[in-house]
Amino acid sequence: MSRNAFQGPIPDTFSNLIVLEGLDLSTNALSGVIPKSLELLRDLKYLNVSFNNLQGEVPKKGVFANVNYRFLMGNPRLCGAPDLYIPICPAQGRKTTRKKSIILRTAVPVAVTFLILVTLFFTWMIWSRKKHVIGNNESDYPPRIAHQKITYYELLQATENFSQSKLVGSGSSGTVYQGTFSGGAVFAIKVFDMQWQRGLRNFDSECEILSNVRHRNLVKIVSTCSNLDFTAIVLEYMPNGSLDKRLYSDENCLSLVERLNIMIDVALAMEYLHHDYTVPIVHCDLKPGNVLLDQDLTAHVADFGIAKMLAQEGNIAQTKTLGTIGYIAPEYGLDGQISTSSDVYSFGILLLEIFTRKRPTDDMFSGDLSLHKWTSLSFPDAVLDILDADLVSDIGFTTDTIDENQSQIKQLLVLIINVAFLCLKEFPEERINMRELWCS
């Protein structure tokens, strides 16, 4: 019932709807108080009255016992919920003042001292709690609103009407914006392109997968917003953007350790999807643009728009949905066959790309020459010739001599490139899997 320009008070007769489980009255022009009778609806678990003209005291029981500020915001004349940063009602304030006055006039000095100590203690407790909540707002926010839908109006506010200044990036299935919600929490908002034929299906797919997987190297879903004309998901915000932007940035050079740690993060995420989740999940579009970096450059695999869940009794599926040219496995591009080995192939390409800083679609790769073949021509003796020049400079390699430490680093790089080659075998059954990766 949101966004309908409803006016007047909320009908008290809503309390007769004894099996009502959810009620969204947000973004209307409702006035008056919130009916206290709504406390009696024992099945009511979701109530959103944000962005109206409501006033008076917020009820305390029933659905209101666990209500979130998001569902009351936009009603500046509401009162009586200090835990939600809604001020105490004037009557309550006067009543409290009178009680304190009586105590101060009648209590003996010992009692006064005790009261002051107790007051100072609770003041300190409340201050400490608020400081903790504000300081950890970004980490605490997702669990509180997980699996709850957010309104389109809130997304507009968070992104300043989807301003270009908030644009983070765009892909085949939609556009990503940076959004700042009430309290200062920052998230990424992926708006799906509904003109794209697979838009709605991708939305359902991402929500299904991201809301169930649990791994530190996978981007977590925070909330959703969906109607006939608009679909979006709210995700963790990654301040360092995608690996693609970071790798090809002229301002920042990823060190050897940073590149290695990023690929370890990606490998752990893919191992979880392939081997540790209830049903094996094939990502189908693993590439630098779908690897996001947080403030510590920890990698998080994102964009499950075309991911596929494989049946437990089989390990191969077919799809008409293609990934990204240059990263898709040969069997995937030819007949649409996908398996966990398809992701392994993409991981191999990604591993070569991060250390060579060459895209598989670079203009230099034409005809029979590919990124895989180009690196193999210099492997292993001339492995330094294929490395990113900035990385070589950062390590301190010279063409004249290589000391013992640099020699060990070169051997490590040979091992890394060799792992990539094991992932890039032509036939899926010849490739290693993500669990065998650690033994290679």
Task: Work out the strand percent.
Answer: 15-25%
Q: Say which CATH homologous superfamily of the largest domain is assigned.
A: Transferase(Phosphotransferase) domain 1
> Which CATH-level-2 architecture of the largest domain?
Orthogonal Bundle
CATH fold-level label of the largest domain: Transferase(Phosphotransferase), domain 1
Pfam families: LRR_8, Pkinase
Catalytic activity: L-threonyl-[protein] + ATP = O-phospho-L-threonyl-[protein] + ADP + H(+); L-seryl-[protein] + ATP = O-phospho-L-seryl-[protein] + ADP + H(+)
Family: Belongs to the protein kinase superfamily.
Enzyme class: transferase
Short characterization:
This is non-specific serine/threonine protein kinase. The chain is α/β, with parallel strands linked by helices and 440 residues long. 35% of the residues lie in helices and 15% in strands.
What does this entry look like structurally?
It is a single chain. With 440 residues, this protein is of the alpha/beta class. α7 packs antiparallel against α9 and α9 (340-356) runs antiparallel to α12 (404-423). It contains twelve helices and 17 strands. It has helices spanning 90-106, 109-135, 137-145, 152-158, 199-210, 243-247, 256-276, 330-335, 340-356, 371-377, 389-395, 404-423; strands at residues 7-9, 22-24, 29-32, 46-48, 53-57, 77-79, 167-170, 174-180, 186-192, 221-226, 231-236, 281-282, 291-293, 299-301, 308-309, 316-318, 337-339. The chain crosses the membrane at residues 102-127. InterPro entries: Kinase-like_dom_sf (IPR011009), Leu-rich_rpt (IPR001611), LRR_dom_sf (IPR032675), Plant_receptor-like_S/T_kinase (IPR051809), Prot_kinase_dom (IPR000719), Protein_kinase_ATP_BS (IPR017441), Ser/Thr_kinase_AS (IPR008271). It holds the Pfam family LRR_8. It catalyses: L-threonyl-[protein] + ATP = O-phospho-L-threonyl-[protein] + ADP + H(+); L-seryl-[protein] + ATP = O-phospho-L-seryl-[protein] + ADP + H(+).
